[in-house]
């Protein structure tokens, strides 16, 4: 008997989506680092992304890259979270390139690379206004680039990059990416050679690529979501790319209670399971189901999209999710399985949870 909740991951669709995105990028002179952190770094997923044309695989978590390195995957591995001091040894051992914004970190990496007898590649991050990681001014960026180039024997200045619409919700535009391109050219003048990588961001840069607004100098993107969670593109960025299939992940949960109840709680209202003062709309008595799946598994139940469009997610505690099934044509009963598509947060939580069974479809 199948166990639930279950996250199905369709590797064929993952491959197809990767191919669509890498073809589009390659046509525009851009290589793709396939980012695997959104699905917990599942190695079979990484392998499909390599087959689909990614030239690097990246994650924010060195543990996920370590798994790939130890499996003998021989494509460059990119750490996309700026490294912490406590992981420097692993960073040098299990990744080939990382994104960097601090001189102090560079010094540690250089010493560790020397110890491990390696030359380690880095991409300097330039903050274009989103205010997450990155060197803030062009002057500082130039200084740091020259410092790496001239002073750190075991570090190779491999490129520059930027990150947008993560903290500050700042959209990638031709204007801000041109500043990255300009900074890259300035560095190249100073070091008298070309940089290998000018990395123009993640999925949020893809809509700009589709409309032709990414400057030519940008030759690298770090893409996860636009490959593995493609419903976000039309939903958040009004961007439709032909051939992308949103059904890589399907989360399945089992009905453990099915009945009719009022829609407004009865009694004196305090806070819910998460200490929040929730709002409840009184819609009378309605048919509903509880599935054995909760915010512990998905982060936020409202990041679930029921495949049956007549099902409405009403709310959830850690282990139970309540669904309104009044308008469904299908007569759901105890023990039935409900299927959901997952938005990014739910994909992230479900793929990492040991309480969610995984099934790879190929
Ligand atoms: C997560 C991450 C990415 C990839 O983001 P997606 O939205 O999954 O494409 C790229 N760059 C950095 C620095 C990241 O942390």
TrEMBL record:
It comes from the Bacteria. Its cofactor is pyridoxal 5'-phosphate. Residues 10-225 form the Alanine racemase N-terminal domain. Transmembrane segments: none annotated. Gene3D superfamilies: Alanine racemase. InterPro entries: Ala_racemase, Ala_racemase_N, PLP-binding_barrel. This is Amino acid racemase. The lineage of its organism: Bacteria, Bacillati, Bacillota, Tissierellia, Sedimentibacter.
